[in-house]
Amino acid sequence: MHSILAVDDSASMRQMVSFTLKSAGYNVVEAIDGQDAFEKAASRSFDLVLTDQNMPRMDGITLVKRLRETPQFKSTPILILTTESSDQMKQAGRAAGATGWLVKPFDPNKLLEVIQKVIR
Amino acid sequence: MGEMTTEGSQLSAGIDLSQFYQVFFEEAGENLDRMEQLLLELDIEAADDEELNAIFRCAHSIKGGAATFGFADVAELTHQMETLLDKLRRHELSPTPAMVDVLLASGDALRAQLARHQTGQGDEVDTGDLLFNIRAMVAGEAAAAPLPTQATRTSATSVEEPPQEAAGPAEAAAVEQAPAASQPAPGGERTLELEVGPLADPSQADNLQELFKEIVGLGTIEPLDGGQAHNGIRRFRVVTTSSESELLDLFTFHVSREQVKFKPAPESAPADGARPAPPSAADPGYGFFENAPGAPQPQAAAAPAASAKPAARSAPKAESKQGGALDSTTIRVSVEKVDQLINLVGELVITQAMLAQNSRQLDPVLHQQLLAGLTDLDRNTRDLQEAVMSIRMIPMSTVFSRFPRMLRDLAGKLGKKVELITHGEATELDKGLIEKITDPLTHLVRNACDHGIEPPEERLAKGKPEHGTITLSASHQGGSIVIEVRDDGRGLSREKLLKKARERGLHAPDTLTDPEVWGLIFEPGFSTAEVVTDVSGRGVGMDVVKKNITALNGTVEIDSAEGYGMRVSVRLPLTLAIMDGMSVGVGDECYILPLSSVVESFQVEPGMIKTVGTSGRVVEVRSEYMPVIELEQVFQVPRFDFERASSIMVVVEAEGGRVALLVDELLGQQQVVVKNLEANYRKVPDVSGATILGDGRVALILDVGSLVRRSRH
């Protein structure tokens, strides 16, 4: 079973993402912010990281940067879930090493669709 | 994407989002509380980056959830707030008091909107003025009159978004936040073709798309020619109900009037003014970076339609439906259920007391096991009772937390500067009591600000600091809870109060003591304010406050020093359903004293009691004289054995005074279930309630405060 690290500081969003992914048969680990996610990622690897951008302690872009610095996350797909699709944000995401982005509000179907493209 | 936000519920992939609503509402409520708190604490002159970030995140988080769950109005307002907050945290704008005001007001509006979604009741919240003011602030203007189209020319809007690559996504951005609140108004809706240019920098025209995104009800805009400029001219298709001149006024924010041309839409425009199909089909709402780690193979990304049926994977959702359920750590229970529980425990306590009493006659050797069991029962009952009672206990902070905001608004309205200090927020109080005390307290705090605290210039003239201070404190004192509202304002004026009392025809001789004079403000219709303001001094007065507190068996005391401030102490007796009591016997009667007010007891020796004047009797205890109250006389207890006389004194304390009660015997300490005498019988002087004893008899619970007051007269 593929395992996904879902990072969001909002409990409702986290629950929803997690529920959607679990319904589709993924194994989901939740993290409440970038820092938490980074700590959780230190002990094990994931098949995908799905992270919010704006979070306390550590934001999504920083998380991507930090993860890319660790060997086991060198090529793991990392998607940034964001409310803004501005070019600036995307540039920052690309520079940090993110695989792609997803615009909030997201549709559960689309989330699964996108994830299937990168998890194999 | 635009469609998604306009649909109230998204039931995509067979997932019912409503199961997450409750968490979202709770979360949004917490975020709003936090945002309000942060805004109130924000130092406008030296705003802290981390604070601004935290405020931003609150709005951002609510927006994300609201958009996902389809609460378009909430998403729209938070989106605007977020835009403003974003500029603040990036230091593109500096915070002003007006911004804090607008953000606070927006928080209120959000609360109302959320409540509407949560309950499905209530009117739509009008946020037009708020949205307009926030937009004006974002554009770098001060909050202006609420006339949306009268926007003045400023071009503080920064130009970002280079158009080359952004054609698709930028358009998506414009549609992404398409406000669902926009009225369709099919009658006046037309489709126009808009030409802008020639422009030196074609990306300027992108700002027009932003306008449509930000202004509710303006309509929709869609770039033509794939968003590319031809000879510096950009073309758009616009669907709107606004007139061309209105649109021109708006556009002149970004491009000059001469550069704008309107044409009727070509025949390819959708018929019947139907909205142009949102480009959601073209815009997937996501994307991958080329050659990024973990990116999919190119052909997969190029043909998103091929995988248009991913639902197959999500089919086995039933299996884990429960797995994703909410892991709540709290439950909501109706108050009746808790009350019933408390009543039942009360009955259990009575039964336990009865067993304890009956078992006293048993031989401890013969019934060792039974007695051990009864001891356990005693302990367990007590623990159970405490646990059950604590369900209803709520910290005072739930009441206190409403005052910072209230005082801020009030002080702003009155042109005063007030600082609020709170103590003892953790002091717990019964929920029922909290609810009932909130209104009187609010009134007292409002009074302190309105009548007590002087305007800044007056304070400075008096040599006081410009900022007035209002202190709220709560503490347990014995069996009571004392809540104080203190201010360092002008205090009460003895002369004015006496004068006013006489004007109102009240008997007010100069010989009245200070406390008696202060007590005058509890007379109906007695306002200390010289001018009735729109904040207080009208309608409800201190008399109502006093009445409400008295109804809770509480007392109100005032202490004041003219020019230095005033303190109102509200003392609430333990009106909880169960209390620790000391039972005393007088004749054949049994009375209960709240254990918390009992200081000591001793045997009366001949000569200890002295008579003062004609009727007053005092007792000397360690060279302190205390008034003596004979319960036998107060309650006219019938006596049959004339030989016997009361010979034991119990010293009790309340309201800062002590009295010695003369009784026959001490019967013991026990927990008693307080029954309201007034509700079951009628009000009896010096009695605060009644209880049922283990043997089934009714015993009166004495009101120590009232006994102390009686001794003062």
TrEMBL record, chain A:
SUPFAM superfamilies: CheY-like. Pfam families: Response_reg (PF00072). InterPro entries: Bact_response_regulator (IPR050595), CheY-like_superfamily (IPR011006), Sig_transdc_resp-reg_receiver (IPR001789). This is Response regulator. SMART domains: REC (SM00448). Keywords: Phosphoprotein. The keyword Phosphoprotein applies. The keyword Phosphoprotein applies. PANTHER family: CHEMOTAXIS TWO-COMPONENT RESPONSE REGULATOR (PTHR44591:SF25), STRESS RESPONSE REGULATOR PROTEIN 1 (PTHR44591). The modification 4-aspartylphosphate is found at residue 52. Residues 3-119 form the Response regulatory domain.
Automatic annotation (TrEMBL), chain B:
PANTHER family: CHEMOTAXIS PROTEIN CHEA, SENSOR HISTIDINE KINASE CHEA. Residues 368-576 form the Histidine kinase domain. This is Chemotaxis protein CheA. The lineage of its organism: Bacteria, Pseudomonadati, Pseudomonadota, Betaproteobacteria, Burkholderiales. It is an enzyme of class 2 (transferase). Residues 578-713 form the CheW-like domain. Its EC number is 2.7.13.3. Residues 149-158 have a biased composition (Polar residues). Gene3D superfamilies: Histidine kinase CheA-like, homodimeric domain (1.10.287.560), Histidine kinase-like ATPase, C-terminal domain (3.30.565.10), HPT domain (1.20.120.160), SH3 Domains (2.30.30.40). Involved in the transmission of sensory signals from the chemoreceptors to the flagellar motors. CheA is autophosphorylated; it can transfer its phosphate group to either CheB or CheY. It catalyses: ATP + protein L-histidine = ADP + protein N-phospho-L-histidine. SUPFAM superfamilies: ATPase domain of HSP90 chaperone/DNA topoisomerase II/histidine kinase, CheW-like, Histidine-containing phosphotransfer domain, HPT domain, Homodimeric domain of signal transducing histidine kinase.
